[in-house]
Amino acid sequence: MKSKWICVLIALLLSGGCFASCAADEPSIDETSGAVSQSQAAEDTGLKPDLPDIKLDGAEWNVYGYQDVLENSFFVEVPDDEVISEAIYASLMKIEDTYDVDITMTYSGLTEEAQSLAIKEMIDTGDTTFSLVEQHDAIGTGVAIEGYYYNLYDVPYLSLTTPWWHNIEDMSLNGNVFCITSDMSLVDIKNAWCLFFNKDIMDERKIEYPYQKVLDGEWTLEALIQMTKDVYEDLNRDNEINKGDLYGFECMLSMYGWLDSFGIQTTTKDENGRLTLMNDLEKVNDIVDTMYDWLHNSVGAKDSGQPNFSDSEGFMNGEYMIFMQALNKIATEFRYAEDLNYGILPMPKWDARDEYITSCLTYPFWIPIHLGAEELEVTGLLVEALSYQGYMETAPAY
Questions:
Q1: Where in the sequence is the domain holding 75, given as residue range(s)?
Q2: What is the CATH number of the domain that holds 269?
Q3: Does residue 278 lie in a domain region?
Q4: By three-state DSSP, how is residue 96 classified?
Q5: Do 80 and 137 fall within a single domain?
Q6: How far apart are CA 300 and CA 368, in angstroms?
Q7: How far apart are CA 386 and CA 86, in angstroms?
Q8: Angle at the Cα of 199 (from 193 to 205), degrees rounded to 5?
Q9: Tens digits of per-residue pLDDT, 142-167?
Q10: CA dist 190 to 12, 35, 395, Å?
């Protein structure tokens, strides 16, 4: 159950690519337009949540987080003079001041499975210390099916159809949706899959940056294959095709997110809203055959050999011309790499007539079912306020 970002993500990815380096013959993209337009559009239309003006008298509102590796997605206790943490901290402080509330976050540090058990035990024993919990999307869905989380349609103040909420209609089934995917947290954006490309490698081989293909709607799998399939160099000079050589493309073995980008979902809803299995097997077979041939029968493309691992270090060392990873690699690794001149591209389409779709690995929030009416009202109020604040300030800053 992965969120899909279409128009906003394509603008973000293209803008990010131009931040790294803009050649004179590249399309001109305003570096600030993405950030300005989102906030300005909401202000121009008067779009804002309908929330009461109340004070909570300094009450604590506690969030149970997963791992602190996800920090700087929702919560920052002390800002560190970085753009992202400053924006998150400022958003939290604005909500705290507006409602006179103390927002805290405690990280469990547990595995995903242990986190589920801890949450269920908390709810079973009536422990209401935490009003919101963070959990892996698929595992959390299993916990929701067991009856441990509130249906968001039953939570006061949540707008759900406004731009600061993501894909609620896609994720709902029979009037039920449980996980909070909104601009309250940056995790959806930060964990969105994309492609990075090494500009120096392309320059050396006189390969044109594919920005214009993206803008023209022609950034397809076939375009990516043609660009990468013959790019290879025996960098380590051992006369073998192995780690340490230069390849046109590298990605994780599990190929996470590719079917989504090609418009394939394993399930869909029929006209009555019932869940049915996807039946476009011909397209899936074509995709599998095409990608298998590319990755196994061309010298320029390879997978990492590990299901959930892609070689970020190899990309930073100049071993891959194009490389698939989550957007957050910019903030966590690539910005610190010396002499890494890179650009950013969206995931390719299957067909030029399709739209760009980017999926993400996400850890959304969920509302425990044992909260009383008053606690639920406060939680709905704060979730909506934080989501709107994230939409207006945090996401544009990122």
A1: 33-189+361-397
A2: 3.40.190.10
A3: yes
A4: helix
A5: yes
A6: 49
A7: 15
A8: 120
A9: 999 999 999 999 999 999 999 999 98
A10: 11, 15, 10
The strand ranges marked E within the chain are 4-5, 59-65, 101-107, 132-134, 193-198, 232-233, 246-251, 267-269, 275-277, 301-303, 320-326, 342-345, 358-359, 365-366
Residues 247 and 149 in one domain: no
Q: What is the DSSP letter of 360?
A: B
Q: Check whether residue 171 and residue 133 sit in a common domain.
A: yes
For the chain, the average pLDDT equals 87
**Whether residue 244 is found in the same domain as residue 142:** no
What are the structure tokens assigned to 85, written together?
């943490």
Is residue 71 included in any domain, yes or no? yes
Number of compact structural domains in the chain: 2
The letter for the amino acid at 187 is: V
Based on the fold, state whether residues 179 and 225 are members of the same structural domain. Answer: no
Do 286 and 369 reside in the same domain of the chain? no
Residues 55, 378: Cα–Cα separation, whole Å:
10
Q: Which two tokens stand for residue 98?
A: 């507006």
Tally of CA atoms within 13 A in the half-sphere of 166 that contains its CB: 30
The pLDDT, as a whole number, for residue 213 is 97
Could you give the CA distance from residue 343 to residue 219 in angstroms, rounded to a whole number?
A: 15
Residue 228 scores a pLDDT above 90: yes
Question: Largest Cα–Cα distance of the chain, in whole Å?
Answer: 71
SS3 assignment for 145-195: HCCCECCHHHCCCCCCCCCCECCHHHHCECCECCCECECCCCHHHHCEEEE
> What mean pLDDT is predicted for residues 249-258?
89
Q: What band does 287 get if pLDDT is binned at 50, 70 and 90?
A: very high
**Which strand (E) or helix (H) includes residue 388?**
helix 373-389
Asked whether residue 27 carries a pLDDT value surpassing 90, the answer given is no
pLDDT band at 7 (very low <50, low <70, confident <90, very high): very low
Whether the full predicted model's pTM is greater than 0.90, yes or no, is: no
The closest of 391, 24, 360 to 188, measured between CA atoms, is 360
3-state secondary structure of 70: helix
How many whole angstroms separate alpha carbon 392 and alpha carbon 43?
Answer: 9
Q: Distance between CA atoms of 218 and 344, rounded to whole angstroms?
A: 16
Tokens 């992202």 locate to 84
